[in-house]
Amino acid sequence: MIVKIRSSLYKSGFLKIRNVEVPVIVIGNLTAGGTGKTPFTLFLSEFFDENKKNVGIISRGYKGRRSSKDPYILSKTDNAIDFGDEAVYLARKSKAMVCVCKDKFRAAQMLVKSGAEIIISDDGLQHYKLGRDYEIAVVDGSRLLGNQYLLPAGPLRESISRLGDVDLVLLNGDGDDGRYSNWINAGIGPNPWGACTLESNMAAKFNFTINNKVVFNLNDNSKHDLSDFTGKTIQVLAGIGNPERLYKDIEKYGIVVSPIEIEDHGVVDINIYSDDAMPLFMTPKDAVKYNKPFPKNAFVLDPFIQIGEDGEDEYAFCQ
């Protein structure tokens, strides 16, 4: 309800939208929890980098103890304790400048002053103060929008009608079995603030998946195919919003997954696995939270984004 009121105040002009001199792309979601926003932010950053653009990324720096309203551009050596796992992951993995700040407009200003030619705001859909040129909403293909109720009765940060305002909807995963299309044909509702229907003005939609084929040893950086672990039991550390999808992706290789219980953005004592003969996989977002030496059998996954089945929609998406 508060988000809806703030949105109305910005749209009416009562609160001022602040713009910067370069294009701003906002990536976000309607639901609480992970949908794949940050991996897609990295994918988009790499696309613009390949097209010779200086990219700036805005991150809140969630759970970082130094994250504040004062903007700060990360270096490759900054740590997740201070600036959050997502921001540090993006700073280390991409060639973009990553600015951490709770005030996304101030972050955008700093990035422009630092030479950014295009800005991507990770998890910025509900931050209306920053003007934007393009909005992308990421929806989990398996959970979709849950019971379609707003927090705290359901998972929604905003009403479903918000999907009618964005420029592009990205469906993470191919397991919706047509349910998303049925929503568009039949209308979506009800919700706590009345029924809403999304019809011909619905944003374009693409499916994407986050896949894994290889891992890297965290101590010697040696590369291994996931197929090398077929038939083995692997401990998996995944402090992400929807780890079940990752488990299924790994299990496709005939691997038995033994999950390590951890909350989203959480931390465990990995030293207890130092003498464990069982291999340990972790996501790159988890790996940035720890320092060497890692357990001898510790590996980091190397996820990649695929647009459409077998990547056949990537050309269309990038046009």
TrEMBL record:
Keywords: ATP-binding, Kinase, Lipid A biosynthesis, Lipid biosynthesis, Lipid metabolism, Nucleotide-binding, Transferase. The keyword Nucleus does not apply. One of its GO terms (biological process) is lipopolysaccharide core region biosynthetic process. Pfam families: LpxK. Its EC number is 2.7.1.130. Pathway: Glycolipid biosynthesis; lipid IV(A) biosynthesis; lipid IV(A) from (3R)-3-hydroxytetradecanoyl-[acyl-carrier-protein] and UDP-N-acetyl-alpha-D-glucosamine: step 6/6. GO terms for molecular function: ATP binding; lipid-A 4'-kinase activity. InterPro entries: LpxK, P-loop_NTPase. Coiled coil: none annotated. GO terms for cellular component: plasma membrane. SUPFAM superfamilies: P-loop containing nucleoside triphosphate hydrolases. PANTHER family: TETRAACYLDISACCHARIDE 4'-KINASE, TETRAACYLDISACCHARIDE 4'-KINASE, MITOCHONDRIAL-RELATED. This is tetraacyldisaccharide 4'-kinase.
